[in-house]
Amino acid sequence: MTHSSSGSTRRALLSRTLAGLAAGACLPAYAPFALASPPRRLSSFDAEVMPLLKRLTLDQKIGQMTQPDQIYLASLDDIEKYYLGSVLSGGGAGPKSGNDAKTWADMVDGFETQSLRTNPRIPLIYGVDAVHGHNNVTGATVFPHNIALGCTRDAKLVEAMARVTAEEVRATGINWAFGPCVAVPQDIRWGRTYEGYSENPDIVKVLGEAAVRGLQTDNLANPLAVAACAKHYVADGGTAFGTGHDAPLDQGDARIDEATLRKTHLPGYLTTIKAGVATIMPSYSSWNGVHCSASKFLMTNLLKTELGFEGFIISDYGALQELPGSYKEQIATSINAGMDMVMVPQHYVEFMTLLKQNIQEGKIPLSRIDDSVMRILRVKFALGLMDPRRNQLANRSLLSTFGSAAHRAVARELVRKSLVILKNDSRVLPLARNAAHIHVAGVAADDIGLQCGGWTITWQGGKGATTTGTTLLGSLRKVVSSSTRVTTSADGGGAAGATVAIAVIGEQPYAEMKGDRKDLHLSKEDVAVVQNLKNSGVPVVAIIYSGRPVILDGILDHADAVIAAWLPGTEGDGLTDILFGAHKPTGKLSYTWPAGDSTSFHLGDAGYKTLFPRDYGLPYD
Ligand code: GLC
Description:
This protein is α/β, with parallel strands linked by helices. The chain has helices spanning about 5-20, 45-55, 60-65, 75-80, 100-115, 145-150, 155-170, 200-215, 260-265, 265-275, 295-305, 325-335, 350-360, 365-380, 405-420, 450, 470-480, 525-535, 575-580; strands at about 65, 85-90, 125-130, 175, 230-235, 255, 280, 285, 290, 310-315, 340-345, 420-425, 435-440, 485-490, 500-505, 540-545, 560-565, 595, 610.
């Protein structure tokens, strides 16, 4: 391979790899971007950073530390006027008209162009939650959520996913993704369980590192790289039930000793820092009563000093307003504790005014401000943003592969490898493609929104044809023989006489605190679908879409086969690949699966009764 510019070399490598996957070639799971060398240390940019830092006024430094959500920008001019360092699109905060990739690129270029007018010229870093693909954008490749990736145990494929995600993010002019989430959820009643790869930090640390490698490559200046963000620091998945903020667990208090924090919740940060992660986001939650966003021990002593993190710390969305005291006091507390950039996200002028007052009143030392801006500039230099020869606008040529078949082939392989066979009595699976009659039941069977779950097009996700993709039913109709009769129903009625019936059931979409649950039972409607099918006297396969293990009482005894499909995303073909045996299942649980008589769902509690242990997953042969 000739070594032309790294961008085209990488693209050629990726294209060939993805083409191989798309063609079904028996490539290794993924020809990795073998990191030519360890990532360049961010502090190695200080020779360029420090002279610029010295030239900045206090207002310009404050502007670099400020990140509004684009939906709250009073005027495009504010980007130049206030020297804003960053802008984000929160969940679903897309363009005002249209949600396709080109419209996103036009929107982001509009913001970027404003920042190119600043003097000294410091381009924006634009952030978005690309947490399972560029999931806000219609037509993007939407991958399975992290809980499914954890069941693949396939770091190379997770790296490939991140690589594809970075390309699709770059196609829209965005250069920063708020991922990977390296939470280690210990209580599956938490609404963010599906954002975690596993309850086991050994799985989380490997896949989190792979995701950073895929997003950033080994050179952040690669035009196909985006800055990553390890989140939510730290022990966001370790909160005690009942301590949540507006919900039982989310944003609650992790009441654990330091040894447990280091052993269970820190490993994902050790590996992502080693991989050169450019940014880290503190959690809304607290550790033993102290908010992570206010903890000098966590953000400065541990993360920056002990672990040597050289990038910058970005707050969560409005997280400072959850700290004790007035807004001015919250700002002083968090910045002094080590916060570098604040995701305000709405009242950014007020934020900058109060930050400046704190500095002028001596409540925040200028040295702390300089540390923050130095870190922000390090990332911008590393991304190549400061090179005047580099065009900072969207690479429109990447629009041609946005949501492409090659990209979707990577997602399809991840879907295949993420499915966990929980039950397969009398070897109902795999199904025959030439079965005489297949009945498909359940509202989720032909619903791309339910297949994708939260963080898809909108923050909470939603039912229906929310984006483009292949549903399970859509894929099944392609796969079965022309002689196969396919019937459908919402409630499981009408299956009598079928060769086999498939029930597609599971959770409605949710994100964050909206997904906290006290009760993990499947809905009575879902249970009824399975029971109606069983009452038809036909073999029943239950496929479950969920962001966590759910209580299987009521269906486990009625279904002959049960598949945990998690939240598979847009590529339903990965489901039928396993259903009809084109590929054999290899997925293994990355979370323990509780029994219905559990009295607790916090891992390790005496009341947590195991139905299926972590690492469980049936093969076909
Ligand atoms: C959200 C989430 C965080 C996300 C951020 C920006 O509230 O906690 O994961 O990156 O805000 O959308």
